[in-house]
Write a structure and sequence with these properties.
Layout: H1 2-28, H2 32-54, E1 56-61, E2 72-75, H3 81-89, E3 93-98, H4 107-113, E4 117-119, H5 125-140, E5 144-147, H6 165-173, E6 177-182, E7 198-204, H7 215-233
Parallel strand pairs: 1-7, 2-5, 2-6, 3-4, 3-5
Antiparallel strand pairs: 6-7
Helix pairs in contact: 1-2, 1-4, 2-3, 5-6, 6-7
């Protein structure tokens, strides 16, 4: 049954994605807001399809922690689910992504439409400067900035190295950081075809102040908050960590 439900999800997801893959970049010709709106509709469509076909529901705690001003979202990365959830739930945002994602048909075009900051991770310092330069511009335009500090999807129960790019952007701009923890990987696995029924718990943390602080301190606070919440969500997964 799980396999069949996963096949149905894939069928409907593939069915709707090409339309938005064209509509989002076209919307971007008129500014980031039309593109972001269309991207949010697509993302909402996909997680609703996952809910109907695969039984993946969600609950959110901490809505009251969201600041009113443009902020930097830094989240745990376990699957594709949280990317979709963040895109359709939080204010219009741009993503810091690896440039290879722009080569993907439809999805890559959509990332360009919402003004994603695409970086070459191998370029080191220049990549960080690109994040700061473009991220500062996006924040000034009223967009939020989203980043997975671990850089890639991490298996459930594991911790990746938290990169400094988002923290450096936060420290240089003074924008607050909103940490996000979740257990989506329990139901929508890392690169997994099969999706499992269950309820994803999303925890939104209090904003982390960044003005006048070092990037190292900001990054440490983000990592400590997220990883502590992960152990609260699924302590059995971290018993050996």
């Amino acid at each position: 049954m799980t396999e069949l439900r996963s096949v149905l999800f894939l069928f409907f997801a593939v069915l709707v994605t090409p339309f938005f893959g064209i509509a989002v970049p076209l919307g971007g010709l008129f500014g980031y807001r039309p593109a972001s709106f269309l991207a949010a509709v697509w993302a909402r469509s996909i997680i609703e399809i996952a809910k109907i076909c695969c039984g993946i529901k969600w609950e959110v705690r901490g809505w009251e922690n969201l600041p009113s001003e443009p902020s930097i979202l830094m989240a745990k990365h376990q699957s594709a689910w949280e990317t979709l959830f963040m895109e359709c739930t939080f204010p219009p945002q741009c993503w810091i992504v690896k440039k290879q994602l722009l080569w993907l048909p439809f999805v890559g075009w959509g990332l360009m439409g919402i003004r994603a900051i695409a970086i070459d991770r191998s370029s080191g310092h220049s990549a960080v400067e690109q994040i700061v330069e473009q991220g500062k511009k996006r924040l000034g335009q009223g967009m939020w900035v989203s980043i997975f500090p671990e850089g890639t999807r991490i298996p459930v129960g594991k911790r990746g190295r938290y990169g400094m790019g988002g923290a450096i952007l936060a420290a240089r701009t003074g924008a607050p950081v909103v940490p996000i923890a979740h257990n989506a990987g329990e139901y929508w696995g890392r690169y997994a075809f099969k999706k499992h029924a269950g309820t994803v718990t999303v925890l939104i943390g209090p904003p982390i102040a960044t003005a006048g602080r070092t990037a190292q301190d900001v990054n440490r606070d983000v990592e400590e908050w997220i990883e502590a919440r992960m152990r609260e969500l699924n302590p059995e997964r971290y018993a050996q960590a």
